Give the backbone structure.
Amino acid sequence: MSLFNIMAVSGSSLEAQGLRLNTIASNLANANSVAGSERDAYRARLPVFETVYRGAAGERGASAGVRVRGVVESALPPRQEYDPGHPLADPEGYIYRPQIDAVDEMANMIAASRAYQNSVQTMNTAKQLMLRTLTLGR
Amino acid sequence: MAFADRVMGVSPQALHLRAQRLELIAGNLANADTPGYKARDIDFRQAMAAASGAAPGAGELRRTHARHLTAAGLAPGGDAAADVRFRIPSQPSMDGNTVETQREQAAFMDNAVRYQASLTLLDGRIKSAISALRGGQR
């Protein structure tokens, strides 16, 4: 039944957006994490979304859910900072801070939470319609 | 035409198509942030005309024997093709995504209300039929 598929589609969106919020939270939490080498420094994480079609491609009404194909790390190199007094400083006296733009992350977070809300609303509407359909003829 | 068909009219087909359209739009909303996703929809007027038999030819099975089953009785709404089309965006985004959330939201709400309208109509018809079967007595 089509209305049940809406739950699956919107549910997949909730999951994907939830994961996106999760990565944003860890990016913001680690904005000030210092590392002793470029390799160990935290890099911003970004989820990559992908459409999942249920049913044969191009089939009428094939529902389109969304899933996270993977989480990629930002290619931006960590910021190198000279701080020889820091306990984590390398022999040359450098520490490495992640290249995270808080404004970027916040904007991303708002977009993710809006998308999440949209999906919740869609599910609610589908639920109401289903419940009304169940009482048909009563 | 079977008794049930006469009582129900076109409402079951309409409900079926509305549910299908809701599913498509839910998919669009779920993929609002998926790069490269193209928003899809169906032309309801055309699909309804095909489903209710106003436009014969499309997806109709030829019966070579009087005792063959009609295709209309097999699947709700018949098997007439409701073509899924891509929506033309007014402001395409750089990542190739053509979902415009406001537009999809509006379409979703509109469709949900029309689904309820069909449901109410069908409910009324079922109640009249029950009333007629009981001879007007409760």
